[in-house]
């Protein structure tokens, strides 16, 4: 199944954009190869609001959110995961608005660090974040005219959650599923086996549209998620083929598999290959001397 990305998106920085009944999007002006045009924050409700993914410590975005809130009460701040483009502004807004911060839990790796391993993603993790309320998988929090279900979708990070506004068939898919690109799955923050299980979890749901953490909506969720699964399986086959062809290091595999990818993303691509190799080694498809590592040798 082919995977077709949609890169058409107008961020309209500083504006609150109506995208669904009782849903507005405000996009941070923090574009990059990893964030696309920027991080999306969402306001849900009319009189008393929920805020989803407040974003980074950015004064202009903070001001845009305060303008959009327009003096209305904000009862809850939902945080999908603890990367620094999504969660740090939560603490400031909690103090200002008196809202309850909801998330799966603090930042943590998907697995323990191996002996001698350094977490290359430490700089991207919001290790200071602590939620007021740790949401369990499937739990529902109700507000004034809205109800959001929390769904644990580890893979991109261990604590990644998506939030469903089931009344209108909307899923706020954060960085788990995005229309413009595949999600980065990079050990030790994330795990490919977790990511694939989380995709399967979404396939059993009946959401009609996804609003992601970056870029525009996913308008045909089931078709797109099946495409994501097929894409990951294709990458897995490519990695196994490179091992069979004699590649023994991740940089060698990246140079071939991602030769048409922006070189600025080759570091992330290497971590994605590592995520696949961890899964392949766990399943006995590929063997390695010791634990899989970014500088490991495979056969």
From TrEMBL:
<dbReference type="Pfam" id="PF17778">
    <property type="entry name" value="WHD_BLACT"/>
</dbReference>
<dbReference type="Pfam" id="PF00753">
    <property type="entry name" value="Lactamase_B"/>
</dbReference>
<protein>
    <submittedName>
        <fullName>MBL fold metallo-hydrolase</fullName>
    </submittedName>
</protein>
<dbReference type="InterPro" id="IPR001279">
    <property type="entry name" value="Metallo-B-lactamas"/>
</dbReference>
<dbReference type="GO" id="GO:0016787">
    <property type="term" value="F:hydrolase activity"/>
</dbReference>
<dbReference type="InterPro" id="IPR036866">
    <property type="entry name" value="RibonucZ/Hydroxyglut_hydro"/>
</dbReference>
<dbReference type="InterPro" id="IPR050662">
    <property type="entry name" value="Sec-metab_biosynth-thioest"/>
</dbReference>
<dbReference type="InterPro" id="IPR041516">
    <property type="entry name" value="LACTB2_WH"/>
</dbReference>
<feature type="domain" description="Metallo-beta-lactamase">
    <location>
        <begin position="38"/>
        <end position="214"/>
    </location>
</feature>
<keyword id="KW-0378">Hydrolase</keyword>
<dbReference type="InterPro" id="IPR036388">
    <property type="entry name" value="WH-like_DNA-bd_sf"/>
</dbReference>
